[in-house]
Design brief:
The complex is a heterodimer. In chain A, helix 1 runs parallel beside helix 3 and helix 2 (about 25-40) crosses helix 3 (about 40-55). Chain A contains seven helices and eight strands. Chain A is an alpha+beta fold. Chain B is about 70% helix and about 0% strand. Classes of the chains: A alpha+beta, B mainly alpha.
């Protein structure tokens, strides 16, 4: 080709502008990307136009992606599912919070497996076990239930106590939406929290149980008002 | 004018994103999560406009972030703004997917109206041309861009915000391919002149 230097520049500029605009034919796009990897002049032309077009892209009103998008990314990359994009939302909607606690609980399961369960084998046969841990993965409570029963059994395995004028309240966290109260946890080392319906029904769409610190008698609002102290993912054994 | 930052949103955000990219390149998962928290809404919005399908846009966003995790180390803060770099990754994914689809099926039919409302879900907000003009206002180059006739203006807006190819633009605007191509070329030349002039003032 007998293109002069300035003709070549002009041609590159046009190719880069159409690349950044998005109208380059696919083959040209692919070639430009490939060439830019080894040719700094071409790379600079592309990024110069991308910089110009960024002024346009900035005008697009942001749209928050659904939470599963992040979960899928984490799953595809095999990362630890922690961290989140929802800092301003209430704590009970913050996925990172639940994820962190869920991981803590998993660690708890392992710890329990070699420790607590050996000491308290009586709880092992229950078909549903939830290990509730604090964010540092320290196990505090173990919830167990048998299919068809209308109560959850809670065993305190640490020195976790709500204190004199406070109460622990148990919450069920659905896959989506706000948690709902299962009830105030009575005082004692091994206690029962009565349920309105059989366990299977109550927990059918529930992934996680959590315990928050509330005034005596439980949350006055129907939503957790105090800090969530313990949480655990439901492991179904059936 | 508020200094030489080429993007609204400020240097602080760009610095933050660049730092997060650097940490992501080192395999820092928390940084990666924070990067997602800061940038995903913008990138998802860009993808939705191009793909016009929330589920596919989501897929593009995921692919882009998977790629970012693996290639964060190739980001060069000296060469581009972090959000521009991220936006390019998402746009490239979207355009690749669109063009592949375009080869598979001929989905576009010419329309009588200019804005093709059937393409535009009511919730989508501003039209491509409105976005282009908003960009002009944001950079105080409305006067400059007003010099662009409606045809080229719409061609540029539809190409950038919706990812239409030359052929799709021709079908959409009901103009010969050659006319559309020259509109795009003219539009880009004006855009360049206006943006660079605005940049020079800063």
């Amino acid at each position: 080709m007998n293109l002069s230097r300035s003709d070549r520049r002009e041609r590159l500029d046009r190719l880069a502008s159409e690349f950044a605009l998005g109208t380059s034919p696919p083959r040209v796009r692919r070639r430009l990307i490939a060439i830019a990897r080894r040719d700094r002049v071409v790379a600079a032309a592309l990024s110069e136009w991308e910089r110009r077009m960024a002024v346009l892209a900035d005008q697009v009103p942001p749209v928050t992606p659904p939470p599963r998008a992040w979960r899928n990314i984490v799953a595809r990359l095999g990362l630890d599912p922690e961290g989140t994009s929802q800092r301003e939302t209430p704590w009970w909607q913050r996925l990172a919070f639940w994820r962190t606690l869920a991981i803590a609980s998993l660690a708890g399961v392992i710890a329990i497996g070699i420790g607590e369960w050996r000491r308290a084998p009586v709880i092992v046969p229950a078909p549903l076990v939830v290990v509730l841990s604090d964010p540092d993965a320290k196990v505090a409570l173990i919830a167990t239930a048998t299919r068809g029963e209308r109560y959850l059994t809670l065993k305190t395995v640490s020195n976790a106590r709500p204190g004199p004028d406070k109460a622990y309240e148990l919450w069920a966290l659905p896959q989506t939406g706000a948690p709902h109260a299962l009830g105030v946890i009575p005082a004692g080392d091994v206690v029962r929290v009565p349920l309105d319906n059989p366990v299977d029904e109550t927990l059918s769409n529930i992934s996680t149980l959590a315990v928050s610190l509330e005034p005596p008698g439980g949350s006055p609002t129907g939503k957790p008002t105090g800090p969530v102290l313990y949480s655990g993912r439901i492991e179904r054994m059936y | 004018m508020t200094g030489g930052d080429p993007q609204p949103g400020g240097n602080a955000r760009s610095d933050k994103l660049a730092a997060l990219l650097a940490r992501t390149a080192l395999g820092d998962q928390r940084a990666f999560a924070e990067l997602y928290a800061l940038a995903s809404a913008h990138l998802y919005a860009v993808a939705i406009r191009i793909m016009r399908d929330g589920a596919i846009a989501e897929e593009m966003l995921q692919e882009a972030f998977v790629s970012v995790w693996h290639h964060a180390g190739t980001y060069d803060a000296a060469k581009s703004q972090p959000l521009t770099w991220l936006t390019s990754i998402v746009r490239n994914r979207c355009l690749d997917r669109l063009r592949r689809r375009e080869v598979d099926t001929e989905t576009l039919t010419p329309r009588d109206d200019d804005e093709a409302p059937a393409w535009e879900p009511p919730s989508e907000g501003p039209t491509p041309v409105e976005l282009l003009l908003a960009a002009a206002d944001a950079r105080a180059l409305r006067g400059c861009l007003d010099g662009l006739e409606p045809g080229p203006r719409q061609a540029i807006a539809l190409a950038f915000f919706r990812g239409l190819s030359h052929r799709e633009l021709a079908a959409h605007l009901r103009e010969p391919l050659g006319t559309v191509k020259s509109w795009v070329r003219r539009g880009l030349a004006t855009l360049r002149r206006c943006l660079d002039a605005a940049g020079a003032v800063e």
